[in-house]
Each structure stands twice: as C-alpha cells, then as structure tokens.
Amino acid sequence: MKIVNITIRQLKMKLKDPFTTSFGTFTDRDFLVLEAQDQDGTIGWGESVAFHSPWYNEETLQTNWHMLEDFLIPLLLNKEIHHPDEVSELFAPIRKNNMAKSTVEGAVWDIYAQQTNQPLASALGGTREKIEVGISIGIQQSIEELVELVDGYVKEGYKRIKVKIKPGWDLEVMRILRNTFPDVAMMADANSAYRLEDAELLKQLDAFNLTMIEQPLASDDIIDHAQLQKMLETPICLDESIHSLEDARKAVELGSTKIINIKIGRVGGLTEAKKIHDYCAANGIPVWCGGMLESGIGRAHNVALTTLSNFTLPGDTASSNRYWDKDIIKPEVVSKNGYINVPQAAGIGYEIDREAVESFTVVKKHYK
Ligand code: OSB
Ligand code: MG
Q: What interface predicted TM-score (ipTM) does this complex get?
C-alpha cells in the first residue's frame, strides 16, 4: 500500500459528565482524528489519545499535530509499505511522541485489515468474538455519589469497577465501597499521586481485596514501584510508566509490576502493543486494555486489540453512551452485561459517521 492523502481534524466533544483524576478534571474531550487514504482509495482512521494539556504525559494534541505534520506524515506519504509493522520502523528515528505515531499507525492498520478483507481484530491475531469490559469512575464530590454511580454500573453488568484515588480520597472511599459491594471485582488507579513515603498508607489498601492498584507512584518510575510491590499484597499494575516492550521487560524483571495496562497510544501503536502483549503472555503477566476517554474510533481500535489471548482482565473500554450523547461511529460501541461484541466487518468494523465528525470538527487540514 501507499498512503497518498491524509486529513487531520481537531474535534471537540462534550463529555456527558466531567471526569476527574488525581491530575485534573475533563469536561470536554479535545483530540485529533486522522483519515488516511491509500492509492487504491481505501480509507483508514486513527485517533490521537493525547489530551488538550500535558497532564497525563508530556504529549498534547498540538504537539501531536506538529509531529504529524512536520515529521511523521512526510516519512509515510507515498512510501510503498507491505505491512503496518513497517510504520513503526519508518518512525523509529523519531524519539518518543508515541501518541502522535500511534495516530497514523492506527489508520494504516485499518487500511491493511480492509485490504486483506478481515476485521482489525483478526489482522492483529485476535480470536475472541466478545470482550469483557470494566469501567473507570472518576473522583466524585462525595462518597455517597460514588456509591450510587458504582451501584448503577454494577447493575449494568460491568465486570470490574475501577475508581480513581488520590491523597484524601483513598482509604475511606475503598473501605466503604468494599463494604457496600463485597463481591464486586474492584481496583484503584492513583495516576501517580503517591510517593514511596506513602507506602504505609498504600499498604492499608491490602485489606480491601483489590484486583490491583494502578500506577501508585511517579509516572516515569519503575524503581520505587519494585520497592513498593515488595511491601504490598495487592498487585501493582503499571500504566504511565510503560512506553515500550523494553519498558515492560525492565519493569517485569525488576518486579515493579504484576499486571500491565496496555494503551495503544502510550506505547506508540498497535505493533508495539502486540509485542508487549506477547512478551507478557510468555512471562505470566496478564494484561488489559486501558482507556483515554476515546471517541468511537479509538474505542474500535481498543476493542480489536482486546481480542488477543493474554487480555485476560476486563479493560476500561466502556460503552460509547457512558461518555457521549452521540459518538462518531455507527453503530456505537455497546456493552451488554459487561461484554462488547467484536465487529466482524473488515477494518475497524464500525462505520464512521461523517456528519457527526464534521459537526465536532473545529480545525481541519489536508496533506498529500
Ligand atoms: O489512567 O487510565 C487512566 C482517563 C484519562 C486519563 C488517564 C486514565 C483515564 C481513565 C479512563 O482511567 C479510562 C476510560 O474510561 O477511557
Ligand atoms: Mg491509569
């Protein structure tokens, strides 16, 4: 294939409810969508999961746009490529900027799956026809509100409840949740809000039988996490700290993590995500697919990735209607009793709702 045309759009979509993490609150989702066209006319779609501000990691939608326009698109346009794995090789001279790389790599995978007439899930080597999903719940105004929300999602059938924690919104919250929902699979995500000095506090979470604690310590750390894991019964799952197969290998060898959250954007694309998945499978480390409040396009890529065999824990890829009044794909992603049916159509398997895309677009630019 040869990519001959690319369009980048910046979209702004209003979240149904604000989403609060230890690092900030989202009320809208501002992000990039990339449409790539092959010389035979096949169109593929990718989404940048970078946020408007560099809170989760250093990338933003503007740094992604700059990297795409000035470096990544020029490297890719009009090059003959035979397999999407070649995209990450093409981008290897560019350091980091993983979310920018992943945006265009995702579109190439979509085109490749269509041209080989298979769903993206199969193109990746996935076999599941449905995937298990959980849900991630932000920090709330009160514990009562959180309990009510959790109750609703448990009744909807989500397979695992993840709650965001931060200093001051942790032990009491988890104690009440565990008492109220004794049999529900639960976990906590700190988004790097603690330091090793907080080990005594974090150790008290062991009492609540959590499936894991996600990224308790610094966003670039794998040393202190290894220390902390020795002190905790609860398995640590790394999110922010893992950007590549090499990071995963080092963290696993050090004992910093027992479970890995794979986010396609954070690791630079589906090819690297697959490599991390395969390494973890070979080393007894379960993985699950994280979320970045994606629109339907990113969500479709997450669904496809989750069909790989070592995604044995429910991910954060909840229903479209949990985030948006209207998504930009048809049909929307629907979770029923905690399962999402994997689409069987070629490519990402959902149709792009172009009218919806246009209605949320604030800036658009073409490249060829
Ligand atoms: O750490 O997994 C995270 C949302 C924004 C930034 C970081 C994270 C999250 C989530 C939500 O937990 C996942 C989702 O529902 O998409
Ligand atoms: Mg996380």
A: 0.99
